[in-house]
Amino acid sequence: MPAHEHTSFREAEVPPTDPFTVERSEDGRWYTVTGPCPTCRATSVFRVAYGVLGPTKGRTRRKPPPLTGEVVVFCQCGYPHPDKPAESPDAGCGAFWVVPVPPGTGGPTP
User: Fold this and answer.
1) What is the pTM (predicted TM-score) of this model?
2) What is the pLDDT of residues 9-32, one digit of tens each?
3) How many Å apart are CA 65 and CA 71, to the nearest integer?
4) Could you tell me where the beta strands, DSSP code E, fall in the chain?
5) Euclidean distance between CA atoms 31 and 25, whole angstroms
6) Could you give the strand order of the β-sheet that contains 12-13, starting from the edge strand earlier in sequence?
7) Residue 60 lies in a domain
């Protein structure tokens, strides 16, 4: 079973503590950010849509340019956390953090 700390639920921005991997899909429409949650330590896999999705009737399909800047990642550990409000849509401990997008197609970020 993966490492996980049953911390109390707390919606808060936290600094990332370990490297994260940012990978771009072949068609350039998705980025997948993977790494451990800085709060509960569970491995988080967060997928972000980028570019135009759906049919492009009458237009040529082109890859969107690479994403630049940062991605806000939310813990999606799926574990129950004490003090989590019943109305909370979060599937994690409430932590969120910013991961910079490396140039190119992705790779480890510090």
Assistant:
1) 0.72
2) 999 999 988 788 888 888 777 889
3) 15
4) 12-13, 20-24, 30-36, 43-49, 70-74, 95-100, 106-109
5) 6
6) 12-13, 95-100, 70-74
7) yes
Q: Over range 58-81, report the average pLDDT.
A: 73
Report how many domains make up the chain. 1
Q: What are the CA-CA distances from residue 80 to residues 47, 58, 94, 107 (Å)?
A: 21, 47, 11, 30
Residue 71 lies in a domain: yes
- Amino acid present at 33: V
Q: What number of other Cβ atoms are within 10 A of residue 9's Cβ?
A: 20
Instruction: Please list the residues that pair with 34 across neighbouring strands.
Output: 21, 45
Single out the residue of 15, 27, 38 nearest to residue 66, CA to CA.
27
Name the pLDDT band for 66 (thresholds 50, 70, 90).
Answer: low
pLDDT at res. 62: 59
